[in-house]
Amino acid sequence: MEKTLDLKFNYTEKKDTRSGFGDGFLEAGRRNPNVVGLCADLIGSLKMGAFQKEFPERFFQTGIAEANMMGIAAGMTINGKIPFTGTFANFSTGRVYDQIRQSIAYSGKNVKICASHAGLTLGEDGATHQILEDVGMMKMLPHMTVINPCDYNQTKAATIAIAEYDGPVYLRFGRPSWPIFTDPAQKFEIGKAWKMIEGTDVTIFATGHLVWEAVVAEAILRSEGISAEVINIHTIKPLDEEAILDSVAKTGCAVSAEEHQYNGGLGDSVAQTLARNNPAPMEYVGVNDSFGESGTPTQLLDKYGLDAANIVAAAKKVLARK
Amino acid sequence: MEKQTIEQLEGTASQVRRDCLRMVHAVQSGHPGASLGCTEFFVALYFNQLNHDPNFKMEGKGEDLFFLSNGHISPVWYSVLSRSGYFSPEEMNTFRKLNSRLQGHPATEEGLPGIRIASGSLGQGMSVAIGAAQAKKIDGDDSTVFVLMGDGEQEEGQVWEAAMYAAHWKVDNLIATIDLNRQQIDGPTAEIMDLIDLRAKYESFGWEVIDTLQGNDMKSVVEGLEKAKSLSRKGKPVMNLLHTEMGFGVDFMVGTHKWHGIAPNDEQLADALGQLPETIGDF
Ligand SMILES: Cc1ncc(C[n+]2csc(CCOP(=O)(O)OP(=O)(O)O)c2C)c(N)n1
Ligand SMILES: [Mg+2]
């Protein structure tokens, strides 16, 4: 389908976003000697091996003990270290929520919680590992910044940017090989939404892997005479409310797209912004109150209604409600 | 179900290893290493030790119960469950595929017979097993509850909360086993997070501890479980330290963490299957 479409963004290469994290982490370590790493027996999966090799004295294997890892990280910030913790998204959030809440968020500690294998697209491991609630949990914590970049380049840029930002951050990325369609030289601005494609009929607010699906959906909609605006909300908190309100003031309706539950995700953040300022029809593309399952990423995005075709359908539905 | 002899159990184990490898190969994902390493244990349990009914009922009243805490070794569990009659071996063809009951990690959501709790996130299974064992005591049900954990999994704090609780509450109808293969994802446990002396740790927590030194020898595994049973119901929870080799049964997989979660390719599968006689019939 992608081949015959006139896409506004293209790709020649695919790579996993976790590799963007690994490469960004190494770069952050080179730029700042205070950057340290911790990992709970998933160094290979998190792509933290290059940093470990170059800075062995600044890297700590914690074993399979995520709660302890969060506490150690919080302690390390006290004399100015900038710890990056690495494990799967489920074990980075739900597993250790109270440790993050008390020792990191409430205590205002400069820990970067780096979470791979988020969402359905981790694939065959199934629902135990496919967390779809992490954005909700993390964005509810006061002081926490929540970032979900869309491709390798954006993840790398975001990783470098969070090292330079002072405060707790949740950085969410994933496992599958995914199109690289953003600029390798991009400057990542935390909290600043990126209008990728201008349009007038409907705004698609997308985050993470589904930004690519939104790019594909825009081309499909355009081929059917519908003009969609695509906004990349890489930072879910703090949310760029101005960008959201400006766009919807023009288009009059919105679709959110994310690899997360409806409850608590980007969609809810957008809906809250609209409801408080400028109520407008909105549709959600996400997982509707169910757990995931084993399957390939493509199969799962289709079955759970998260791919470009579903974004197109949501856009048409919301247009009819204008 | 009739108890299999050691010889029969060994034949079953060969088939179970084939099943594990063929499942993981077919989807090119899953965890063969510790599945192969724990094959004797699973086969001994389901075909010789457990008093269980393949006509599955969640409550399992009057039955021995088994819980798998290190859920990533689902292939070996799915194989013994199907081979002992919980569901058709053909269903192993669906392992890790869309719309399957055989999820990557064991789950109750799809209703697979034999599974009583989801696992996959490590460190949680022993708590559940203890709860189930205590529920049996409340009911005056004299059956035994078994749980298997990984050795790397011992690094999770919850395991030690559970260990303390089980001894405090004298949960002596519980037999826990640790797959002591000395490997985890990133490497040998001694390098990742040294467990030092698990026997001393559990003893100091108030457990009765035994070692099954040859965890890949069927006779030793059966004897170890018999011994564990004989030590149960004496006021202490029982820990069976099962010394295994990850990847046992396939020469190029044995003894390394490299096959923790990697699937064999076509050539490697053929090589591996050549080392494991088909005894019952492939699914
Ligand atoms: C809470 C949690 N953290 C991390 C993981 C990822 N993980 C899966 S298996 C594994 C290694 C487990 O080691 P061990 O218990 O020794 O099992 P083995 O590698 O021997 O099969 C890890 C870290 C997980 N499943 N759950
Ligand atoms: Mg192990």
Automatic annotation (TrEMBL), chain A:
Gene3D superfamilies recorded: 3.40.50.920, 3.40.50.970
Required cofactor names: thiamine diphosphate
UniProt-listed InterPro entries: PDH/Transketolase, THDP-binding, Transketo_C/PFOR_II, Transketolase-like_Pyr-bd, Transketolase_C
Domain named Transketolase-like pyrimidine-binding: residues: 15-180
Residues of the signal peptide: none
Cited SMART domains: Transket_pyr
Listed transmembrane segments: none
Keywords: Thiamine pyrophosphate
Any one Pfam family match given in the protein's UniProt record, by short name: Transketolase_C
Similarity comment text for this entry: Belongs to the transketolase family.
PANTHER family referenced in this protein's UniProt entry, alphabetically: PYRUVATE DEHYDROGENASE E1 COMPONENT, TRANSKETOLASE-LIKE PYRIMIDINE-BINDING DOMAIN-CONTAINING PROTEIN
Protein name in UniProt: Transketolase
From TrEMBL, chain B:
Residue span(s) of domain Transketolase N-terminal: 14-271
Cofactor: thiamine diphosphate
Alphabetized CDD domains for the sequence: TPP_TK (cd02012)
Record SUPFAM superfamilies: Thiamin diphosphate-binding fold (THDP-binding)
Signal peptide stretch: none
InterPro entries: THDP-binding (IPR029061), Transketolase_N (IPR005474)
Highest rank taxon of the organism: Bacteria
Keyword list, A-Z: Thiamine pyrophosphate
The family this protein is said to belong to: Belongs to the transketolase family.
Protein name as annotated: Transketolase
Organism encoding this protein: Algoriphagus yeomjeoni
